[in-house]
Amino acid sequence: MARPVRSIAALAGSVGLAALGVALPGSADAADATPAVTIDSVTSDHDAPGAENPGRTVTGTADVTFTVHAADSGPEPYAAVVSVSGYGAGTGEVSRRIDLAPGDCLPSCTLHAALDTAATKPFPGAESIAAPLVQDGANDIRVEVLTARPSITAATADITVDNHRPTVTLPDLPGDDAWTDSKPVGLTADRELKVRAVAQDGGGGVSHVEFFSDHPAWPAPTDLTDEGDGTWTGAVDTSKIYSTLWTSQYVVAFDEEGRAGVPVRAAVLVDHGFTVTPVVDPVTHSLPSVVTLNYKYPGSLAQPFPRNLNYAYPVSTRVLLDDQLLATSRVADFTYEGYPDRLYASLGDNAVPYGKHTLTFDVTDNRGAHGTARTSVNVVSGVDASWVSGFGEFPVAGKTWKVEATTTADDGVSRAQTWTMTVDGKTISTGSYPARPSGTWKADTPGLHEFALTTVSQFGDTSVTTQPLRVLAATTTKLGGPALTTYGAKQALTATVTQTGGKPAAGAAVSLQFRPQGSTTWSTVAKAATDSRGTAHFTTTAKRSGTWRAVTAAKNLTWTTSTSATVTGKVKATLTVKSPTTAVHHGKTVTYHVTSTPYVAGTKIYLQVREIDGTWTTGPAAKLNADGTAVFTQTFPRVGTGSLRVYRPAGTTLTASYSTAWTVHVS
User: Fold this and answer.
1) Of 9, 186, 285, 416, whose CB neighbour count within 10 A is largest?
2) How far is CA 13 from CA 111, 152, 442, in A?
3) Residues of the chain with pLDDT under 50
């Protein structure tokens, strides 16, 4: 180390600092009272004598001369550090520190340092490779002056390092713009990594190019093959390397003397593919047009939200039917990075034919790796059931109902191996092939019920056929009325209607029908609706004897019709004896005048006498006149007391009729 004292102006003029690109941070008269430093010259062991602009290119040792000028006031410099740094993979720094004693740089001193730009160090993790600390190319010399004050005064000089090291580039690596959004893209490997490098001679030739990793999981360094024109290629077995993004792989070129250039990082994505699981039933009666595929990558390749670092993801799917291409589809937009678990594969527009098939799903990701799955499917038709009996009409509550069905299948193979018939979820019958599905059911409850027939084919395929069935309530109609009524009087009849369970049939439409005695024809004489108690009232005028009944009309989808038992109604005529004589002398003739309502001229009526035993004996007859009157004459031959009455025999319209009896005293 030499410390001659020179003026800064003289030194600057002697070495041409502008040509060296020296950075001057300040002058000796700077107002901040800090030291100043200037780089006087940078020379190299290999500079040719008299070369223009010496120090621009450095090969081997760089000799640096610089001057430190202390400030008029302020702390003295206690050290100076001269360095040159590398910026590639595995590079470092070459530096020299010069310690200064008090007074060494008062007011200034010129110092000298030698830097070995060709220095090397073992590459971390690959100690067999002596990587240069400084790469060839544009660089700078930096001089820093250290003082007690916590500040640094520095100057730099641009240089070009040329130690004749070979360089290498990887043309298959993307540019910096591909490493965006935390989604790095590097070289891709599945079971084999193919490497292509371009080596450039730095002046010492290129003896070989090597691919290596500083990670112990990788194979030993691999020499690439010279393909000519500076291109070197090779392949690395990555079959045993686990899937992830590797950033510790490098390619380095060596010169003829075996000196390594600066290694170039080769980020490698090892993608051994992914698992694919189709969501397809092994037996299906119609394949969907789109099949869901669950897929899964190793966790290092697919990191969902919130990291979203999915270095690999599916982009297209091929589906083969029995090893023949069926359809190809790109992964839909809704399968995206950050949601790595399923995708959807199209099976095309045509239906897959019936029968047993093998579906192959071959999914390719953005790295060219594959996920493949094969699955067997048996495409069968459903077993269709058709109800052939039991639903042509509505059953009535309280009756036993039988239903029956047949089954068919479009594929000609499937059949109803077993079947179960239910009503409202309750099983009423079961069976198995070849029995036809059928069942009986007692319709106890009115209302809407659901029949269901569940068939299971021999392939385990289940089909369900349902059919609604409405059960109507049964009705019971009862009719009550008088057994005997006098002609022309009012007669009341009452109909009571109930439905299943004894519930009144409110609002039922009831018809009162009459069939005259001797006739077979019914006619409706009145209609009425039942009240809330299910009762309907009728009032008629007695005209003739006959039979009554009440008929309840069916109510749509509610209850059925019903007819009451018949009620026989007899109608009698009114026979009136006008002021009959009650006291007579035996042997004397008495006249009785009788009126009949209704009457028909010529109708015979009779005088009856009650015997001692209480029976009535029919006596003389008389015919009704045109005015409905008749006259009886009677002679009592002996003394005594007896009862008389007038009797009209029954006819087609009226029942037997009697007048009020009267007592006669014969003296």
Assistant:
1) 416
2) 17, 26, 124
3) 1-31, 48, 50-53, 334-336, 338
